[in-house]
Amino acid sequence: MTASDGVLDSPTSWVASHIHRYLETDGADGHEWRPGVFTLLLTTRGRHSGKLRRTALIYGRDGENYLVVASQGGAPQHPAWYLNLLADPQVDVQVGAERFTARARTATAEEKPGMWATMAKIWPAYNEYQTKTDREIPVVVLERV
C-alpha cells in the first residue's frame, strides 16, 4: 500500500491499518499499541527497488537512542526492513508526532544482552521467538542524526 506521501507501507493488512491510523493522528492512535507497549514508524530505503518502505515496530529506549528488534516472529530469515537498513543505514523515524532522521546499526555483542533484556521486558515473546530460529535475532539501535 502506498501512502499519500509516496512511501510504501507494510503489505500486512493489520500493520498497514496501524500505520495509516498512526500517520493520520500523529501517533495519537497507534503510538501506544497495547497497554505499555509503544510503537514507532521506521522508514527504510529498499535495497533493490530504492523505494521508501515503512513499517511499525515495538520500541524501547537506551538513553537517547531507540531500540527495535528484527525478530519477524522467529522466522528463519531477517525481516526486509532489517536487510534494507544494512544496505542503507540512514532511516526516518516517527515516534508519536515527532519525526527525525536516524542512523541504524546492529547492537554490538557487548551491548546486546542489556538491550535484549530491555526489549524482552517490553515484549516477552522476543525470548520465545529466539528459540524458534537458528539465526541470532538482532537488536537495532536508532541513533538520531
UniProtKB/TrEMBL annotation:
Pfam families: F420H2_quin_red. InterPro entries: F420H2_quin_Rdtase, Split_barrel_FMN-bd. Coiled coil: none annotated. Signal peptide: none annotated. It catalyses: oxidized coenzyme F420-(gamma-L-Glu)(n) + a quinol + H(+) = reduced coenzyme F420-(gamma-L-Glu)(n) + a quinone. Belongs to the F420H(2)-dependent quinone reductase family. This is Nitroreductase family deazaflavin-dependent oxidoreductase. The lineage of its organism: Bacteria, Bacillati, Actinomycetota, Actinomycetes, Micromonosporales.
